[in-house]
Amino acid sequence: MSSIHGLTDGPVDHDRPVAEATHITKRFGPTVALSDAGIVVRQGETHALVGRNGAGKSTLVGILTGLQAPDAGAVMFDGTPAPPLGDRDAWRQRVACVYQKSTIIPDLTVAENLFLNRHARGRDRLIRWPQLRRQAEQLLAEWAVDVDVRRPASSLSVEQRQFVEIARALSFGARFIILDEPTAQLDAAGISRLFERIRALRAQGVTFLFISHHLQEIYEICDQVTVFRDARHILTAPVADVSRQALVTAMTGEDVTMPDTVHAAPADDAPVLLTVRELRTHSGATLSMQARAGEVVGIAGGGGSGKVEVAEAIVGLARPAGGTVTVDGRVLRPGSVPDALDAGVGLVPQDRHREGLVPQLSIGENVTMTVPHRIGRNGLISPARRDAFADRTIADLAIKASGPHVPVAELSGGNQQKVVMGRALASDPKLLVLITPTAGVDVRSKQTLLGVVEEVRGRGTTVLVVSDELDDLRICDRLLVMFQGRVVAEKPHGWSDNELVAAMEGVDLDHV
C-alpha cells in the first residue's frame, strides 16, 4: 500500500492514545460547558462522540483543536502536552477538523480554498497559479472528488463542499482527524464514499473522532463510543457492547421514542391544496403530483435522484425549466420565493447555514422575518410584538435559549434548526416543505421537529417531506420515490426499510 500525504505502512499500536483530554472543565460566564469531562482516542480507531445538542461536544472539539483553552484539565497528543494555542502550525500537524458548518470561502476557487495560505510561490514570492491548480487536481483525484478546481466554491453543492473540506483537512497530513457531523448534508451514496475513505485511512493508522447524531452510522463505522450529557462524560465503551436503546438512554437520561407514525390518512374528500404539473428542473428531473389538505407526502431518493431540485423548484428557490406549481388554486410565479411565501408556503431548506438563518440576528428577528405584518403596523416593527411572537415559538418548539434576544449563532445545531422551523410555521402555511429537516440534530430535537408535522397536518396543512432519512419519511402518508430524475415508485404508509432503500437505489425487489 502506498503512502498518502506522508502516511506510511507500519504496525499500529492500538493501545497507544493519539489524543487525550482529561479532567476538562470549561465555563462561558455562568454556563458550564464541560465539567470534569474527558476522552481517550487510541491509534487507528474510529471513535464516536455523541450526545444531545448542548452536551459539550462542540466545546471539546474547540479544546482538542486548540481554538480555546480549558479552564482546568489537560490535552495531550501521542503522550506529549498539546502545543501553545498560538502555534497553529503545530496544532495542524497533530489534528485536523472538518466542521459541520462549512469553512469554505465561497468567493474563492476550489483550488484557492484547498491551499489557502499555502499557495505555491516562486522565488519572486508570486503565486504560481498553474502549479497550485495541478496540486489541487492531484489532491482531489486522490480522494476521487470530481470537482473542477477552477470553479468558484459558491457554485458547489452541499456534498461537493463537504468532500472538498475533507480533502483539505487530510492534505495537512495529520494522523488524528475530527469529523464533526460529516454526513449531515450527504446522501446515501456520498456517505458510502466517505465511509470507504475512512476505512482505507484507518487501515493505515489514521485515527478518527466521529461526531454524529445518526446513530446507525455509529454502529456502521465506529469502534468505540463516548457519550456526553449535560457537560459531563457519561460512558465510554466498545460500540458492539452498547445497544441502540442503551445509547439513547445514555444520551438523554431517559427513554426516548420517535413520534407515533400510526395516524389516520386525510379524508378522501379533503380538498387538493398542492398540484405539481409536469415540473421540470434544469438538471432534467421531472415531477407531477397532487396532495390534499392534511396529507403528508414524502419525496425520497438518493444522490442524483432530483428530489432536492424539484423541491427547491416548488418553493421558488430555483427557477424550473418548465411546468407549473399550484397552491390552493393559485399558480406560483416560477423561481419566486416571495410569491411562494405570499401564497402560503413555508420552507425548511436543505442547508440552514446558507439558506435558513441569518446567524448575526436574534431568534426573534429570524423567526419573524417573513411575517412583518404580524408584528408591526404602518411599516414599523413593534419589538414587543416581535418578542412576544418569538417567545411563543421558543416555548412551542422547546428552543433552548434564555429569550428572543439571543443571537442564532450562539445556539446549538438542533436549536438553530428549530428556529428555521419556527420561521416556516410563522405564517400558518397552507403548504409546509421540509428538505432534510433533521440533518445534524440530536434525538430529542428530531423528536420535536417531526412532532410538529403531526400538529400542523391536523390543522389542514399539506406537508411535503423531502429526505433520504428513514425516520423523516416514516411520518408520511405515502412516498414518491425518485431515481435519476423521475418517480419510479409510490409507497403507501407502512413500507419496509428494505423495499424503500431498494427503490431509492433503483432496484425492483419484485424482479430480483
Automatic annotation (TrEMBL):
This is Sugar ABC transporter ATP-binding protein. Gene3D superfamilies: P-loop containing nucleotide triphosphate hydrolases (3.40.50.300). The keyword ATP-binding applies. The keyword Transport applies. Residues 19-255, 256-509 form the ABC transporter domain. InterPro entries: AAA+_ATPase (IPR003593), ABC_carbohydrate_import_ATPase (IPR050107), ABC_transporter-like_ATP-bd (IPR003439), ABC_transporter-like_CS (IPR017871), P-loop_NTPase (IPR027417). The lineage of its organism: Bacteria, Bacillati, Actinomycetota, Actinomycetes, Micromonosporales. Coiled coil: none annotated. Keywords: ATP-binding, Nucleotide-binding, Repeat, Transport. GO terms for molecular function: ATP binding; ATP hydrolysis activity. It holds the Pfam family ABC_tran.
